[in-house]
Amino acid sequence: MTFLSPVKRGFGDRKAPDKTYPNMTLCKRLLILYRIALRGGTSNNGGSALDGLGFVIYCDHTIYRKRTSKRLIRLCIDISKRPHGNPTPHQARQAACRIGQLKHADMHHFRIKHVDGVISYRKIRKAIQNA
């Protein structure tokens, strides 16, 4: 992914990659990507910007990255295959973290289909408390 540099004319013009601006902080880079996403801009991945937490930011909504959502699906399947659907403490922590991030994305139907119908929040909470 190439970060765009701030220019006086605006954010529409592409500039040199990140190597040219080594002192630019991560906050400034994310702000630039956020502004590109708000205007439906011209970043390398088709008008969307990537967040540091694994979100893809579009101008009108936010979703999980494909890789991150596949990991969450795999984790839910692994938990459901365990005896009585009881996760290990490590699996429970991972699931709680990823489900918490899922709340901030616009993926309600994804959560209902792949998470709510497969694992139990009560068992996750119990595994974390008993660890």
Describe the structure.
It is a single chain. By secondary structure, the protein is mainly α. Helices cover 47% and strands 6% of the residues. The protein is built from five helices and three strands, in the order αβββαααα. It has helices at residues 26-38, 66-81, 89-102, 108-116, 121-130; strands spanning 49-50, 55-57, 62-64. Strands 1-2-3 form a three-stranded antiparallel sheet. A hairpin with a 4-residue loop joins β1 (49-50) and β2 (55-57). α2 (66-81) packs across α3 (89-102) and α3 packs across α5 (121-130). The radius of gyration is 19 Å and the shape is elongated. The N and C termini lie far apart (39 Å). The model has no long low-confidence stretch (mean pLDDT 75).
Topology:
Blueprint: H1 26-38, E1 49-50, E2 55-57, E3 62-64, H2 66-81, H3 89-102, H4 108-116, H5 121-130
Antiparallel strand pairs: 1-2, 2-3
Helix pairs in contact: 2-3, 3-5
Strand arrangement, major sheet: 1-2-3
Order of helices and strands: HEEEHHHH
Radius of gyration, in Å, reads 19 Å
Count of DSSP-assigned helices: 5
* Mean residue pLDDT: 75
**Multimeric organization:** single chain
Low-confidence regions: none
Would you report the number of β strands?
A: 3
Strand content: 5-15%
Principal-axis shape equals: elongated
Helical residue percent? 40-55%
Structural class estimated from helices and strands: mainly alpha
Distance between the termini: 39 Å
What descriptors fit this protein?
131 residues, 5 helices, elongated
